[in-house]
Automatic annotation (TrEMBL):
It is an enzyme of class 2 (transferase). Keywords: Methyltransferase, Transferase. It holds the Pfam family Cons_hypoth95. This is 16S rRNA (Guanine(966)-N(2))-methyltransferase RsmD. NCBIfam families: 16S rRNA (guanine(966)-N(2))-methyltransferase RsmD. The keyword Transferase applies. Gene3D superfamilies: Vaccinia Virus protein VP39. Its EC number is 2.1.1.171. One of its GO terms (molecular function) is 16S rRNA (guanine(966)-N(2))-methyltransferase activity. Signal peptide: none annotated.
């Protein structure tokens, strides 16, 4: 696993042993960021200078990729202890500690913020209906900017992770499915 593009291109990332963390594969991240940059609803503006939230961060690959490609800041949420240690190691190895913050608690119970994010990644464990819960908690605590792009990864056979949104894209990649929409 590595950073695909940008200032940290080629930087290797580590993942914790075992199956408690399921990092987004390099090819899926590549497809996602290509889509963000080239879709009619995306473009460089959705990444460059963005405030990013990487919920259920695991290794931090999504947030670190965004930072490498020009995002201004990323907030990571992770509760699993081995994943949290790996996340910290990856942020340090990429030398991105000054443009990120790691919360070692659940994205389902975030603290209040006055710095809402314009790009939100949610890659929770599959099949547990966590995206809708996380979005509700994040909205209530001020983490999601109006019009923010929200990207959620689910299992390939799962239905849309939230209701009453206009899906901009939904694409399957192997066992994963990516969903993208704008926050109200």
């Amino acid at each position: 696993m590595r950073i695909i593009a940008g200032t940290r291109r080629g930087k290797a990332l580590v993942a914790p042993e075992g199956k408690s963390t399921r990092p987004t594969a390099d090819r899926v991240r590549q497809a996602l960021f290509d889509m963000l940059l080239h879709a009619p609803w995306g473009g460089r503006d959705c990444l460059e200078g963005a405030r990013v939230l990487d919920g259920f961060a695991g290794t931090g690959a999504l947030g670190l990729e965004a930072l490498s490609r020009g995002a201004a800041f990323c907030t990571f949420f992770e509760v699993d202890r081995p994943a949290l240690a790996t996340l910290r190691a990856n942020v340090n190895a990429c030398r991105m500690g000054d443009v990120s913050r790691i919360h070692g608690f659940s994205v389902l119970k975030p603290p209040r913020t006055d710095a809402p994010c314009t790009l939100v990644f949610l890659d929770p464990p599959y099949g547990q209906s966590l995206p809708a819960q996380a979005l509700s908690a994040l909205r209530g605590a001020g983490w999601i900017a109006p019009g923010a792009l929200v990207v959620t990864e689910t299992g390939r056979d799962e239905t849309c992770p939230v209701e009453n949104v206009e899906i901009l894209s939904d694409r399957a990649h192997g066992a994963a499915k990516l969903w993208v929409w704008r926050a109200d």
